[in-house]
Design brief:
Helix content: 25-40%
Distance between the termini: 39 Å
Oligomer: single chain
Number of strands: 13
């Protein structure tokens, strides 16, 4: 598998402590049409020329939601059940992308591929936080942990499962794995917004879930998969040519959306938020403790991806130069994050640079959030639960910056892009 297929999690976390089954049943409360309804309200704000494509998207999403619910209702009725049995919980579905294709021909590999295939939702995608290592889904069992809010690209979901099934097909030659992988790809293609972005969940669910979601590399994972598929690189050799062509078109639209979402200050690109509004493309609020701001981790990941593009467009070159400069300027040197005692930064000479996770759009200073929905300027102001339960400081951006200098030599900045 190409290193650019960005599924970075390792299998080591599948310890017994994470293989938990919920002790209570999952209520089968039906997902409403709230997601499509909220989207339709936003569509009225779009330029008239764009509304038809967005209405078609909302219609497809609602049709898919109804089909999901019809499948689930029919299965429960056939079994005489009124409630789902719970899906097995896992904090992270940690797929090791370095597993050799041949491993999937083993009994253990086939068991995993079969479990993954069994949890494919009727819409073609997969849920997050579900243990799919060995336990296949049983009839009447929930597809995910959120009732009928199932398929998502969050937490490496769907992109990981598509890659697994492609590997399983290559190892075994069994067409069912290939067919399921293709269904997963078509789910990703169908979920793409008319503007090139992707929501966190599809069918759409409303609220922050509908934002263009860069958080946790959600869109980045999709773009990386589409690039490997278009190029027919491992593990996507032998996939249909028409699917590869569609993947290429979606990839380019996705990159255009990434560039369009990049926040500019005085005409200079600086970075991305965790989520962006589908209409304005401006950074948007996520959960209550995730305020609007520039996000260092997601900016670094998108920067690293853009630097891997061959023959980048002038707009991409400008974005890479600008975001790299912003990350360099916001790095915190000589400090370590003492999360467990004071929760603040302490002197730590000789340590790697730190970045706050979020920076205020106006002041460019670190900001922090809490479950009360307020925004704070020091980490000591937030609750211990949020201080301990969220990554407010990160070190990852340095890896992207380490690659910038060589890239700059090959792609010097040549003035500004027209329209700035």
């Amino acid at each position: 598998m190409s290193p650019s297929l960005q599924i970075h999690l390792l299998r080591g976390c599948t310890c017994g402590a994470l293989l938990l089954l919920a002790c209570c049943s999952v209520a089968p409360s039906k997902a409403t049409a709230a997601g499509a309804s909220q989207l339709l309200k936003r569509i009225a704000e779009f330029p008239e020329a764009e509304r038809a494509s967005w209405r078609a998207y909302a219609t497809r999403s609602e049709d898919l939601r109804r089909a999901d619910n019809a499948f689930i209702d029919a299965e429960l009725e056939q079994l005489g059940l009124t409630e789902f049995t719970p899906a097995p919980f896992i904090e992270e579905f940690n797929f090791d992308p370095t597993l050799p294709r041949e491993w999937f021909a083993s009994a253990e590999g086939r068991a995993m591929a079969d479990a993954v295939l069994s949890y494919q939702a009727p819409c073609g995608g997969w849920a997050k936080h579900v243990d799919m290592w060995t336990q296949a889904r049983e009839p009447g069992q929930a597809f995910g942990r959120d009732g009928r809010r199932i398929a998502t690209i969050d937490n490496d979901a769907t992109s990981s499962q598509v890659a697994i099934l492609a590997l399983a097909w290559g190892a075994t030659g069994e067409a069912r794995y290939r067919e399921a992988a293709i269904r997963g790809v078509r789910y990703l293609l169908d979920a793409q917004y008319p503007n090139g972005g992707w929501p966190q969940f599809y069918p759409v669910q409303g609220n922050y879930h509908d934002n263009i979601t860069f958080n946790d590399n959600a869109i980045l994972n999709v773009l990386s998969l589409l690039r490997e598929l278009e190029a027919a690189r491992h593990p996507f050799e032998g996939f249909p040519d028409d699917l590869r062509e569609e993947a290429g078109r979606a990839l380019r639209r996705g990159i255009e959306c990434v560039v369009a979402c990049c926040v500019k200050v005085d005409g200079v690109p600086v970075g991305w938020g965790q989520q962006h509004d589908i209409l304005t493309l401006a950074p948007a609020k996520g959960r209550k403790f995730e305020p609007i701001g520039l996000c260092s981790a997601e900016t670094a990941s998108l920067l690293a991806f853009l630097m891997t593009l061959e023959d980048p467009a002038p707009e991409v070159v400008q974005v890479v130069h600008g975001t790299a400069a912003w990350l360099s300027a916001t790095a915190i040197h000589g400090k370590v994050w003492d999360r467990e005692s004071s929760g603040d930064l302490c002197d730590g000479h000789g340590t790697e640079p730190l970045w706050a996770r979020l920076y205020d759009l106006e002041t460019n200073c670190p900001i922090f959030g809490d479950r009360d929905g307020n925004v704070y300027t020091t980490i000591g102001e937030i609750s211990e639960e949020r201080r301990m339960g969220y990554g407010w400081y990160v070190t990852g951006p340095q890896a992207a910056l380490d690659c910038v200098e060589k890239w700059r030599v090959r792609h010097p900045l040549r003035g500004t892009v027209s329209g700035d």
